TrEMBL record:
InterPro entries: Galactokinase (IPR000705), Galactokinase_CS (IPR019741), GalKase_N (IPR019539), GHMP_kinase_C_dom (IPR013750), GHMP_kinase_C_sf (IPR036554), GHMP_kinase_N_dom (IPR006204), GHMP_knse_ATP-bd_CS (IPR006203), Mevalonate/galactokinase (IPR006206). Residues 12-59 form the Galactokinase N-terminal domain. This is Galactokinase. One of its GO terms (molecular function) is galactokinase activity. PANTHER family: GALACTOKINASE-RELATED, MEVALONATE KINASE/GALACTOKINASE. Its EC number is 2.7.1.6. GO terms for biological process: galactose metabolic process. The keyword Cell cycle does not apply. Residues 94-180 form the GHMP kinase N-terminal domain. The keyword Lyase does not apply. Residues 285-363 form the GHMP kinase C-terminal domain. Belongs to the GHMP kinase family. GalK subfamily. It comes from Flavobacterium shii. GO terms for cellular component: cytosol.
Amino acid sequence: MNDILIQNTTNFFCEKFGNEPQKIVLSPGRINIIGEHVDYNDGYVLPAAIDKVICFAFEKNNTKKSKIFAIDLNEEFEVDLTQPILLSDVVWTNYILGVIKQLQDNGFAFEGFNCVFSSNIPVGSGLSSSAALECGTLFGIKELFDLTISKVDIALLGQKAEHWVGINCGIMDQFSSVHGIEDKVIKLDCKTLEFEYHNANFSDYALVLFDSNVKHSLFTSEYNTRREECEKGLSIIKNHFPEIKSFRDCTENQLLSIQDKMDKTVFKRVHYVVKEIARVTQACEALDNGNITVLGQLLFDTHDGLSNEYEVSCAELDMLVDTAKKEDVIIGSRLMGGGFGGCTINLIKKGYENEVKNKFSSLYLDIFGIELKFYDVKIGNGTSLYKPNTK
Ligand code: ADP
Ligand code: MG
């Protein structure tokens, strides 16, 4: 699937700069199987890199300037590496400037390069094309100039670059883009960055994302409120159970025993969090045992929690998951990401994907007047060099 992308990117580079590229880098987007809204609540997440990538072609240009061309936008920019790096008005350039700035600020020495890139990751749909852009640029510069940077540091520098752009993201996106392994999910502790891989063989089921094509503006304000509510809930839990240091130490029974000590809304929020943290571990067990129907049910449970207790869903996402529940060939579905729009992630029995897509498209169009989009995804490798002869 990525062969055409790689070929086009390479051809474009050759035409633009008159040489073959010295390095070709593929940097993937990511999904999160389960573990939603728990990264900032001391929980675990279960992401994976996907087979949709940004392809970059690089060469050194023996100057102190870098030229970068975004093929998909037909836009380019030049940056003088001897001058202070400042935010620009052109958003996409900032992710690259941010990466350059982070490398410079952390003492990595490199010189001018030429780069072109093109992507098949849907942009702005929650598959983290921004992390792919940061990690791919970092990886390419590391490879061109023989810099010693670990995978974890690429993820951390990418995250800092995104903060510099103005998005206060956690570490999951960059971490999964860099650490992905084909057919494996990553159980990641976002706090300590400890992680372990679990085999993700979905056997007879395909992963399909349904893009609701909506983005409700509630996200930022509600996100901040959720964080406050969870902090409040945790302090009440700690008062009653001094041995509990964070949500991951709290059982559902302990929480239920002090339900009347907190207001209803705070209880609902922390009830979701405690159960979701447990679900990530249950999901790993289900994968280890090859029990995909159990995994599917956990996805439905997560959605119920996000919709009714954490209250970060919306009519469009609820309709997609409620409809999925009624389909025998869909064994799991939930909203993926922060909520209030974006995609649902679905496990669909192989062979029925087209039937399901047709049915959902027309239903969704009828009810909301909006086109539903679909992305078939497989779990792929993390950011890496493309070596033509080995493929
Ligand atoms: P997401 O990461 O969920 O896809 P974001 O809004 O975080 O959405 O990041 C998308 C931004 O990343 C785009 O607005 C653009 O600035 C940059 N970007 C992603 N892919 C490309 C691309 N192929 N070409 C140019 N810029 C891109
Ligand atoms: Mg992003």
